[in-house]
Structures are given as structure tokens and as C-alpha cells.
UniProtKB/TrEMBL annotation:
Gene Ontology molecular function: aminopeptidase activity; metallopeptidase activity; zinc ion binding
EC main group: hydrolase
Protein name: M18 family aminopeptidase
Keyword terms of this UniProt record: Aminopeptidase, Hydrolase, Metal-binding, Metalloprotease, Protease, Zinc
Family according to the record: Belongs to the peptidase M18 family.
Keyword Cell membrane (UniProt): no
EC number: 3.4.11.-
Source organism per UniProt: Desulfonema magnum
Organism phylogeny: Bacteria, Pseudomonadati, Thermodesulfobacteriota, Desulfobacteria, Desulfobacterales
InterPro entries named among the record's database cross-references: Peptidase_M18, Peptidase_M18_dom2
Domain of life: Bacteria
Length: 434
């Protein structure tokens, strides 16, 4: 795969994945086309060597793996990890707000979102809907309004002369998006609006009523190249769908004789505590079914290594003083090894050295990020998975700007750089030597 082909696939994946539910659907489709066999957690598994499998949980997390030709306790499993969720605005269960003829929807802020960029954007809605069918069965379906159906207008500067210096955002009162205008006699029902969209999107659906939903607003501006020389990629949800796509491409094109695995968890942005999050039992449950013997599982994990891929902070030229002078990653200069003495990242000298060695073998430049010592550091699924499973882990990522904004920026070369390294990592049976 060449860089242009990789990036075109990435842009399409980002556009088709406005929510974790849509991302996992896209991942599942790509896996099936690559010959991976879909499993269900509720079924008995009959796993065979030299076969490739995947399983989803909650429609928002996915684990895909290849069982190679070797004995797992002797070789271990090469694993890559990422997360499917991104900060956004989630619609509340009873969201209808009618004020001055405008129908607005109450929203919750999901994750550590950078809120100012959400104003004056053309917004749409997408997510999962749980509905009651005509035969009284509970069913789920994904919906996407696709077009711009909402906006959060800024307050004009004439009413807040200090807006460019001191404006703050009240998450309860300042963020409800406007959907439409209504008369005084109308009593809008958002569930009816969702039901209409269900029937529009699925003409043959037997939906009788909408019971519940998990819907998020998203920016309708499509992903694309930015810069005179197209040096950058701009998009929503680069954190962390870029890593999901990179891991996915690496896994599907890795050596089929090597045992390797990709896990993409939901709920990282809110702490990972869920059935489908990294603190949940999903990965552990799958590994136990791959290695039913406790002794074999222990030996396999001890010989395994995980690359936790989650975007890194590129040094911002307008705010360079916010970064450690010796650890400011540059866009388009390669993936970043993330280090933190307080274990906010799981990298240690062994795993970081392994990743650096893989970069050397693939002739990919590599960088290092350490947060300023006087600033708090974020975290990833890396330390959580390492602590829960006991697997040696390195935290890496592609450098980006505007992390957690409604539109983020990455270098056009770095995703492909990381893909080359992960492909070699997942194809190798010997990279975890002690």
C-alpha cells in the first residue's frame, strides 16, 4: 500500500464514521472483505490456526485477530490497541427545549471536548437507536441524518465586548443546538423525529416506536487535505480513528502466519470503565477463549507485546512554550513514543526500545514526547490494558494539533509512517525477545 492510497482510505473511513457505532461497522466491513470470520460472544468458538477472526461488543468496540501457525505460549501475540470514541455533544434523553420559537436539544459534553470550535458549525446527528418493532421485539439500528440539521450560533460580540479575552462556556445553557422554528401550539417530540429518520433511512423497517438512543452531534465538514502542498490532514475524530484505521490496515496486511491482534475500545475519553472499555473484560475474555488453559494464557501474555496507538501532541508553533523544549514532536516527522514517569503512558525502556528498533528497520523517523514537568499529563488505554492484562506495552501516536477540537490536524505522512511500523510489528514472531 502506498501513502496516497492509505490516506484516501483514511479520509473515507473518517467521513463514514461519525460515531463509534459507525466506526465499528466500517471496521467490520473491511475485516470481512479481508477474509476475517465474524464471531459472536454468545456462540461456541472453534478456532483454528491460520485463520482470522473478529468479534464486536456493544456495536462500538471490536477485537480482530489472526491465529498464526506457531504455538502461542512459545511466541506470544503481537497486539495493537486504539479507541473508537472522541469528545462530542451527546443528546439527553428528554432533550426538547422550546425558547423564543426555536426548538433546541439539551446535550451533555462527552469527554474532554474543546468547546469553542463547536460554535457556528454545520452540525448533524448520528448514533444508535433502540426501537420497538411491530412484533414487540427490541431491536437496534444506526442512523445518520448526514446533512446539516443544527447549529450553535455564537453570541454577537456587541453583547460581550470581552468575548475575545474572557468568554467562558456554560455547558448547560450555552450549548443546546438549534434545530428548527416552531409555533406556540406545537409540542415537538424528538423521539418522533428520530422515528421519522429511521423510516427514511430504512424504508422497510418495522419500527413502531423509539425507546432509547445514543446520538451525538458532529461537524458535517468532510475530512480533507490542508496546506499549499497538502502537507496536512484536517478532520474531526482524528483522535483516535486515525489510529484505529492505521491498526486495521496493518492487521489486514500483516503476515497471516503470525499471531496478532487489534483491539479498538470504546469509552476511552470518559475513563474506559464499561463493558466495552479498556477497563472492562472484553480483551481478557477473548484472550481466555483463544488460550483456554490458564498456564498457556500466562505464558502467552508474558511473551506478548502491545502497541497502544493514540494521537500525540505536536508542538504548536504559536504556543511552543507549553512544551518541553527537548520533546516537541513535529508533524510529518514520524510517530511519537510517549513517556511518563507517573505511568500515564505504559512505555518502558524495553518496549520503547523495541518500537524504536522497528522504526529503524522500516526506515521510519521516530520522535519522543514527554509532558512539561509542571503540567498534568493525559493518558491512554495503554496503562489500563497493561495493568489489567499484564502485557508489556508501549504508548505511541501520530503528532496532531488541536486535539479534542471539533476539527483536528495531522501530518499527511505520519499515519502511513505508523502503518509501516505496525505492519512489521504485527507480522513478526521474534520482536518480543527479552
Amino acid at each position: 500500500m502506498q501513502e496516497i492510497q492509505f490516506n484516501q482510505g483514511l479520509l473515507n473511513f473518517l467521513k463514514q464514521s461519525p460515531t463509534p457505532f459507525h466506526a465499528v461497522t466500517q471496521i467490520s466491513n473491511i475485516l470481512e472483505k479481508a477474509g476475517f470470520i465474524r464471531l459472536s460472544e454468545s456462540d461456541a468458538w472453534n478456532l483454528q490456526k491460520r485463520h482470522r477472526y473478529f468479534v464486536t461488543r456493544n456495536d462500538s468496540s471490536v477485537i480482530a485477530f489472526t491465529l498464526g501457525s506457531s504455538n502461542l505460549p512459545e511466541t506470544g501475540i503481537r497486539m495493537a490497541g486504539a479507541h473508537t470514541d472522541s469528545p462530542c455533544l451527546r443528546v439527553k434523553p428528554q432533550p426538547e427545549i422550546v425558547n423564543k420559537t426555536y426548538l433546541q436539544l439539551g446535550v451533555e459534553v462527552y469527554g474532554g471536548a474543546l468547546l469553542n470550535p463547536w460554535f457556528d458549525r454545520d452540525l448533524s446527528l448520528a448514533g444508535r437507536v433502540s426501537y420497538l418493532s411491530k412484533d414487540k421485539t427490541l431491536k437496534n439500528a444506526m442512523i445518520d441524518f448526514e446533512g446539516p440539521i443544527a447549529v450553535i450560533p455564537s453570541l454577537a460580540i456587541h453583547f460581550d465586548r470581552e468575548a475575545n479575552k474572557k468568554r467562558t462556556i456554560n455547558e448547560q445553557t450555552d450549548l443546546p443546538p438549534i434545530l428548527l422554528q416552531v409555533s406556540d401550539q406545537e409540542k415537538p417530540n424528538f423521539r418522533e423525529i428520530v422515528l421519522q429518520q429511521l423510516r427514511k433511512q430504512y424504508p422497510n423497517i418495522d419500527a413502531e416506536s423509539v425507546l432509547e438512543y445514543e446520538l451525538s452531534f458532529y461537524d458535517t465538514q468532510p475530512p480533507g487535505y490542508v496546506g499549499i502542498n497538502q502537507d496536512f490532514i484536517a478532520s474531526a475524530r482524528l483522535d483516535n480513528l486515525l489510529s484505529c484505521y492505521t491498526g486495521l490496515m496493518s492487521l489486514t496486511q500483516a503476515d497471516k502466519n503470525a499471531s496478532c491482534l487489534l483491539v479498538c475500545n470504546d469509552h476511552e475519553e470518559v475513563g474506559s470503565v464499561s463493558t466495552s472499555g479498556a477497563q472492562g473484560p472484553f480483551l481478557e475474555s477473548v484472550l481466555k477463549r483463544v488460550c483456554p488453559s490458564p498456564e498457556d494464557l500466562g505464558r502467552t501474555i508474558d511473551r506478548s507485546v502491545m502497541v497502544s496507538a493514540d494521537n500525540a501532541h505536536g508542538v504548536h508553533p504559536n504556543y511552543a512554550n507549553k512544551f518541553d523544549d527537548n520533546h516537541g514532536p513535529i508533524l510529518n516527522q514520524g510517530p511519537v513514543i510517549k513517556i511518563n514517569a507517573k505511568q500515564r503512558y505504559a512505555s518502558d525502556s524495553h518496549t520503547a526500545g523495541l518500537f524504536r528498533y522497528l522504526c529503524q528497520k522500516t526506515q521510519v523517523p521516530v520522535q519522543t514526547f514527554v509532558m512539561r514537568s509542571d503540567m498534568a499529563c493525559g493518558s491512554t488505554i495503554g496503562p489500563i490494558t497493561a495493568a489489567k492484562i499484564g502485557i508489556k506495552t508501549v504508548d505511541v501516536g501520530v503528532p496532531t494539533f488541536a486535539m479534542h477540537s471539533v476539527r483536528e490536524l495531522a501530518g499527511a505522512k505520519d499515519g502511513f509512517y505508523l502503518y509501516k511500523v505496525l505492519k512489521l510489528f504485527l507480522s513478526s514472531e521474534t520482536t518480543n525477545s527479552k
